[in-house]
Model the fold of this input.
Amino acid sequence: MTHFHTLLISIIYGVPMMFLFHWGIDVGNRNFRDTSTRLIAAQFGAFLLMLFAVFAIQVLPKEYAPPIAIFGIGTLGVILTALGVHLLLRTLGWITRWPKGLGVALSYIWVVPGLWTLVTGKNIFNVSQFYADGLWVKPYYNAPFHIAMIFGSAMVAIFSIGLGWTALHAHDANTRGKFLGLFWGMVSLTVANAVLGAALPEKTAGWLPPYPYLVGMMAWLIAVRYSIVKYELLPGRLGRYQTLFTATPLPILMADARGHIVETNAAALSLFGKEPKSLSEVVVAEDRTKAFRVYRHAFSHHQSIQEWHLSVIDCDNSVRSVVVNGDYISVGSHVYSLLVVRDITEEQIQRTQLTHLAFHDPLTGLPNAFQFRQQLGDWIDRDALHQDRFAVLMIDLDNFKTLNDTWGHQMGDEALIAVAQRLSENRRSRDLVSRIGGDEFMMILADAMDQEATYQTAHRILSGFREPIILTNGEPFKVTLSIGVSMYPIHGRDADGLIRAADQAMYAAKRAGKNLVHMYDGHVAQLSH
Done:
C-alpha cells in the first residue's frame, strides 16, 4: 500500500472518528447520571472503535483481518445494536409500558452471540475470510451475516415506524422536530442495512469500501447529534434543572456573552412584564455602561457573579433595586450565564424605615437622643479641626403634666408635635433640634462664638412660643419653656459634660420661675426672661 493510499484511508476513517470522539465527550459532559446520556455516549464510543477496527484491517497485513473482524467489528456491532435498542425503547417510552426488566432484557439479548464468540472463539455471524480489491481489504460475506443483516433491517424498520408515528402525533414543535430527526436517521440506517448489508453481493465494486452499510449507522448518529443540539434530546445542565428553573419564585435570566437574553422563567416575566431580549432592556440607563462592563468581564473570565447590585425597570416602568447572582452553564456547544435576580426594593424600604426609627423619634420625627449624641460627638470632633464653636440647649416644657392630666395623652402628643414643629421653624439652617424623651428637647446652636449672641438666639427660640398652641379640641394651650445653655469648650469638652451642664442650667431656670433661659456658669445663675 502506498503512502497516498494510507493517507486517503486515514482521512476517510479519521475524520468521522474525530467527530465521534468530540460528540461522545460533549454528550458525556452533559449529565452522565442520565441513562439516555450514557447510552448515546456509549454508542458514539463503540462506533468510533468499530471504525478504528475497519481502519486497522485496511492498514495492517491481511492475516490480522479475521481476529479484528471477529473481536472488533462483530462484537462492537452487537453492542451497538443493544445500545441502540435500549435507547429507542426509552426514547419512545415503550420500556415503561412493559413489565419491569423486559425492555432491558430484549435490548441486550443481542450481546449473547458476541459473548459466545469471545468466550468460545467460535464465530457465529462474523466473516473470517478477506481478499484484496484494489485500495481495500474486503470480507467474503457469508450466509449467517446476510441473515443477521436482514433481521436487523426488519428491526430498525419497526423502530422507524415508531419514530414516525410519534413525530406525527407530537403535541409541540420541539418534540415533533426531535422525533422527525431521529426518524430520518433510522430510515437511513434501515436503507443502508437492507441495501448495503442484507442485499450486498459477496464481491462488490472496487470503489466501494468494506462494510458500506456502516454509513447508515453514521447517518443515525448524526441524526442523534442533531436532535441533541437542535431539540435538546438529552437534558443538559439546564434540562436537568428545568423544573427548578420554571417553578422557582426568583426571576432567572439566561444570557449569552453579549448580554442577549435567550430564556427567562415565569418569575422574570412577572417582574419585567415581558420577555426581555437583552440586559440593556431591563437595566436603568445610568447603570448600563458599568453593568455591561462588569458582565462582559465576568463572562470572559467565567467568574461567578456574586451580590451584583443593580437598578432595573419593572413591568410598571418603576425602578426596582435587585441583587444578581450567577454562574455558567453549557447547552450543546454554547456557554450561557444563568442570572438569579432577587428584588430587594422592599428590603431597602424596610431597612430605611428601621434606620429612620433607630435614629428618630417616632412621634415628632425629630432626631432622637441616640442621634443627638452622635451629632454632638461630630460637632466636637469638627471643632477640634476648624474651631467651629457651638452651644447645647436643654429645653423642657413647663407644666406639661397639667396638660396630660387635663386633656389626656392624645392632646399631650399633639402638643409635643406642635412644639417640635415650632422649634424646627425657629432654628437656623445649621442648628439641630432633637427630642430626647418625654417633654424634653435638645438643640445644638451653630456659630456660638460668645455668650451674648447665644443668649439672643436662645431668647428668640423662647419668644417663638408667645402665641398659644391650638389643639384639635379647639382649646388653646400656652406653652412656656425652661432652657438651659452650655457652651463648647467653656462648659465642657465632651458630650456628657456639655449635656450635664445644659441639664443643670435648665433645672436652675425652673427653680428661678420657669419660662427662662439659663446660661451654665458652674455656680452663679445668669438668667434671661
